[in-house]
Amino acid sequence: MYEITEKRDLAHRVSLFKIKAPRIAKKRKAGQFIVLRLDEHGERIPLTIVDSDNEAGTITIVVQEVGRTSSLLCQKGKGDTILDVVGPLGKPTHIENFGTAVCVGGGIGTAVVLPISVALKGAGNEVLSIVGARNKDLLILEDEITEASTKLHVTTDDGSYGHHGFVTSVLEDLIKDGRKIDIVIAIGPVPMMKAVAEVTRPYGIKTLVSLNPIMVDGTGMCGACRVTVGGKNQFVCVDGPEFDGHEVDFKELVLRNRSYLKEERIAIEEATYHEGTKCYERGDCS
After folding, report:
1. Which of 44, 123, 170, 189 gets the most CB atoms within 10 Å of its CB?
2. Angle at Cα 255 formed by Cα 254 and Cα 259, nearest 5°?
3. DSSP string computed for 79-128
4. What are the tens digits of pLDDT across the range 62-117?
């Protein structure tokens, strides 16, 4: 069992958790993730390790309520436990002094890009971060990403805070202003990552995206997280999660991510229906 030592709400349906997992905390690097299972009846879901504390033996994750498992997780609090936490998984982000690195985070992707920004700045890079949300209330971890950046640009779709528009418009402005950019790392919704890759493609700017497809075992055995990159099959759990954004088949990725929408909807409806008896948590609903 893995104990939750802290829970904090960051925005509507978005929560930060600190989990006691000393061995993972000791080994994790920027870009890596865990796979967790709430109980013996639960599914396995991947979540990026946002931070770790070796002294406290904890790892930090940020969770957005999207499906049944993430919703059940966000109902937990300090002192509650999680049955399985496996990690660190995936290849760490390659960190070196590239020069000027632009880190782009959209929505919950801000949490994923944060540890990468921290590592890049620590390696001596000039880190220009661009983070976006639909509105000010949905913006997360602004103070943390500010500290991890040389300069932070904030965008909101509705103009309620920062730049009115999308992260791609700020990125385009930086490029058109003649700013030398050595690498771009974009993490967020698939359409956003695809848009960022299309902005940088004409300029030949190296662009990495972090993918989060359906995943089961996290060891490359099940094949559920298969993606096509540069015309070749890759498995996100062992070959990624980061890939060349100019070579990812985003159309296929979108289709594969929609494979179980019907089943997920049914699971959420069943959980809601049986919530009064709590049988949905035990997995014995009839």
Report:
1. 170
2. 115
3. T-EESEEEEEESPPPP----SEEEEEEETTHHHHHHHHHHHHHHTT-EEE
4. 999 988 899 999 999 999 999 999 999 999 999 999 999 999 999 999 999 999 99
Q: Are 10 and 16 in contact (CB under 8 A)?
A: yes
Amino acid sitting at position 78: K
pLDDT in tens, 199-218: 999 999 999 999 988 888 88
pLDDT in tens, 49-64: 999 999 999 999 999 9
Q: Which of 252, 242, 238 is nearest to 210 (CA)?
A: 242
Q: Select the CATH number that applies to the domain covering 2-89 from these four: 1.10.1200.10, 3.90.180.10, 1.10.3210.10, 2.40.30.10.
A: 2.40.30.10
User: In this predicted structure, which of 27-41, 99-113, 180-194, 219-233 has the lowest mean pLDDT?
Assistant: 219-233
What's the CA gap between 205 and 190, in Å, rounded?
A: 19
CA distance 279 to 286: 9
What b/e sequence results for 219-244 when a residue is b if at least 16 CB atoms lie within 10 Å of its CB, and e otherwise? eeeeebbbbbbeeeebbbbebbbbbe
User: Which ranges in the chain are annotated with CATH 2.40.30.10?
Assistant: 2-89
Helix intervals (H) in the chain: 22-27, 68-73, 109-122, 142-147, 167-176, 190-200, 236-239, 250-257, 261-273, 279-282
Residue 33 pLDDT exceeds 80: yes
Q: Which of 119, 248, 97 is nearest to 182 (CA)?
A: 97
Beta bridge partners of 85: 36
Q: How many CA atoms lie within 13 A of 18 on its CB side?
A: 12
The answer to whether residues 129 and 152 touch, using CB atoms and an 8 Å cutoff, is yes
64 secondary structure, DSSP code: E
